[in-house]
């Protein structure tokens, strides 16, 4: 079986920069307080300024209501009882995964993993890990990060992360079964119910697009198997507000700061 080539970094306009390369860590010294909070991923710079003025931010244990305060060496900034800091030590990569790649950091059978194919100097020595899983034959969006809080938000059932898949089946899917996907039914490990399901395009009954919130193992494939279909191709096209725009198969990009902020604080 042919091993996919190493992943390539996207140079599209919606690609961010690796943290620490576009802004050295030392730059936080002298940074305005509202900008510091924004770079920590708490809120936009304007909202962060309003939070400071409202007395919701502490510096070195004391409420400080001046957004223009410049961060000094050794300062500790708190919001909502937690210490916050610019997230430049955190990396967020969005990957369009090809087939025949394992979504783990290592594999006991020596199969190719997503981490094997990420070959960039900025990533060397980092403890990056994929968020959730796509099975070997499933393609599409996968987030890779070293931010445990974001991982929890995207994988814990109570946060109900939205995911959209395009499934190509072995035979035409009936309208009745499309309706059953949205109505819901029982699988061996609990209920399945799509938020919605529809044909991917008019005149093509072989490909169905559906949105789910469940993260259970192989849930989409098992749902179609329950209805009597075999999934020939499965592609994740949407993940927690992120899409495949300008991201071909086998490419990755760094998230933009606004995207990171939404991932950190979505409800």
Keywords:
single chain, alpha+beta, Structural Genomics Hypothetical 15.5 Kd Protein In mrcA-pckA Intergenic Region, Chain A, Alpha-Beta Plaits, Pseudouridine synthase, 10-stranded mixed beta sheet, 6 helices
Derived from helix and strand composition plus strand pairing, the structural class reads alpha+beta
Please tell me the overall pLDDT.
Answer: 88
- Summarize the biggest pleated sheet: 10 strands, mixed
Give me the Rg, rounded.
Answer: 21 Å
Regions with little confidence, pLDDT below 50 for 5+ residues: 22-26
Distance N to C terminus: 42 Å
User: How many separate structural domains?
Assistant: 3
User: The CATH topology of the largest domain, please?
Assistant: Alpha-Beta Plaits
Level-1 CATH class name of the largest domain: Alpha Beta
The CATH superfamily label of the largest domain reads: Pseudouridine synthase I, catalytic domain, N-terminal subdomain
What does this 3D model show about the protein?
This protein is of the alpha+beta class and 267 residues long. It has 3 domains: 25-88, Roll (Structural Genomics Hypothetical 15.5 Kd Protein In mrcA-pckA Intergenic Region, Chain A); 90-157 and 245-256, Alpha-Beta Plaits (2-Layer Sandwich); 162-239, Pseudouridine synthase (2-Layer Sandwich), CATH 3.30.2350. The protein has 6 helices and 16 strands. It has helices at 33-39, 45-53, 148-155, 175-183, 219-226, 257-265, and strands at 8-9, 57-59, 62-63, 77-79, 82-84, 92-97, 129-130, 138-145, 163-169, 185-187, 190-192, 196-199, 207-212, 231-239, 242-243, 251-254. Strands 1, 6, 7, 8, 9, 12, 13, 14, 15 and 16 form a 10-stranded mixed β-sheet that branches. A 4-stranded antiparallel β-sheet has the order 3-2-4-5. A two-stranded antiparallel sheet has the order 10-11. A hairpin with a 2-residue loop joins β10 and β11. α1 crosses α2. The longest helix has 9 residues, at 45-53. Residues 22-26 have low confidence and may be disordered.
